[in-house]
Amino acid sequence: MLESTKSENILNYYGAYPCPVCRHGEITPLPLMEAMGCNFCRHIFTANEEQQTLSMADSQLSLTWYWTGQSWKGVPREGTEGKLVYGIAATIFVFLPTLIVSLAAYFFPPIPNSPLSWLPMVWSIVTFFAHLSCIIWLVIEYYQFPVVMYFRAIFRRFSMIWR
Ligand SMILES: [Zn+2]
């Protein structure tokens, strides 16, 4: 029986390829289906052998990658011109509230050595990280990145080294 190998340079439904989503698992053909699945993050993909592209099948997002023979290259999605706008919006979302809170603390400083004099400083830091975590969470949700599985895999790998 022919064994599918990683060294295959052409994308087809018989090979095994690294997963473009988690970059950890391996995508292999699913039995009885015109699709491929990752053995790690469990995402399902459809391949286009003619165009040598792979598309995510189990997501509303049309994420597509091009197979270069060794690795995946992200194919820009339609409407990605809006990406810069999102980036700016995210930056404002993180920094503007932080700026307002820290400016307030700067212009109306607490009485030194009063019991809660540490609060404005801590509040500014908390504001920054609270807004930053919102953005990080959105990005994770957007790409459906398997965070928990990813960290579990990293942990597994490290615990093997330590042993
Ligand atoms: Zn995967």
Q: Give the biggest beta sheet.
A: 7 strands, antiparallel
| CA-based gyration radius | 23 Å
Low-confidence stretches: 1-7
Distance between the termini: 37 Å
| Total individual domains | 2
Number of helices: 3
Q: What does the average pLDDT come to?
A: 84
List keywords for this structure.
163 residues, alpha+beta, 2 domains, 7-stranded antiparallel beta sheet, 7 strands, 16% strand, elongated, disordered N terminus, binds zinc ion, transmembrane
Which SSEs are present, and which pair or pack?
Layout: E1 17-18, E2 26-29, E3 36-38, E4 44-48, E5 53-56, E6 64-67, E7 72-75, H1 83-107, H2 119-143, H3 147-162
Bound molecules: zinc ion.
Transmembrane segments: 84-108, 128-151
Keywords: Membrane, Transmembrane, Transmembrane helix
Word description of this protein:
- Helix content is 40%, strand content 16%.
- The protein is of the alpha+beta class.
- The protein has two domains: 17-75; 80-162, no CATH class.
- The chain has a seven-stranded antiparallel beta sheet with strand order 1-2-3-4-5-6-7, with no helix packed on it.
- α1 packs antiparallel against α2.
- The radius of gyration is 23 Å and the shape is elongated.
- The two termini are 37 Å apart.
- The model is unreliable at 1-7 (pLDDT under 50).
- Bound molecules: zinc ion.
- The site of zinc ion (ZN) has 8 residues, from loops.
- Keywords: Membrane, Transmembrane, Transmembrane helix.
- The chain crosses the membrane at residues 84-108, 128-151.
